[in-house]
């Protein structure tokens, strides 16, 4: 089995004491490649360093909406400079988007998200999109900007209509711990109805713990459990699902093949 965790924050301090052990354990379980998204300029260099040190780690650069107020003037210009360098392990822009729960200025979030949508168009890179209580607004913006390389709606939670709308705009759904909760019936039903090529796997580690692990650190080690849950929802063998979702991830993040 060859799995790709398309969204995990392995650079976070939560993994400082055992990062190597987590990678070894997850690799032993079939997780072969990882995409680590940025949250802001403050961790761009760390991601570049992590990818240089570890085989199979790729990264995205961007500004997370909840970090928007921490950024300094000119951050998008500096982001553009790093994107223009085209390092081989850089596969996407993100994590970026909108968070309707956050106390961070919605105007500030929007300004940075729109700037990153423009950069996605300029550099032809996929986006890792954070959309919390903002699915309809995010979809409207994606329709307006039409980033040609598409991307992922990270940690998708929503209706079948929203899922189909995102997919029609060229955005896959990031499938993680949410589907392991039976109470997330709307999202589970939406995911079950989508074609395989519209889905990718993720953990969002150390966040988004799976059902039964609430309050615990999430890890790429648990990605096979997300896979098993998805396979059950869609009535397919886990080994086949792993193959289909690897194909979906590689089709989106073409640089994973380099």
UniProtKB/TrEMBL annotation:
A molecular-function term among this protein's GO annotations: hydrolase activity, acting on ester bonds
Keyword match Metal-binding: yes
Annotated keywords: Hydrolase, Metal-binding
Organism placement in taxonomy: Bacteria, Pseudomonadati, Pseudomonadota, Gammaproteobacteria, Aeromonadales
Binding sites annotated in the UniProt record for a divalent metal cation 1: 7, 9, 95, 204
Amino-acid positions noted as binding a divalent metal cation 2 in the UniProt annotation, renumbered to this chain: 130, 154
Domain of life assignment: Bacteria
GO cellular component, one term: cytosol
Name of the protein: TatD family deoxyribonuclease
Family named by the database record: Belongs to the metallo-dependent hydrolases superfamily. TatD-type hydrolase family.
Keyword Metal-binding in annotation: yes
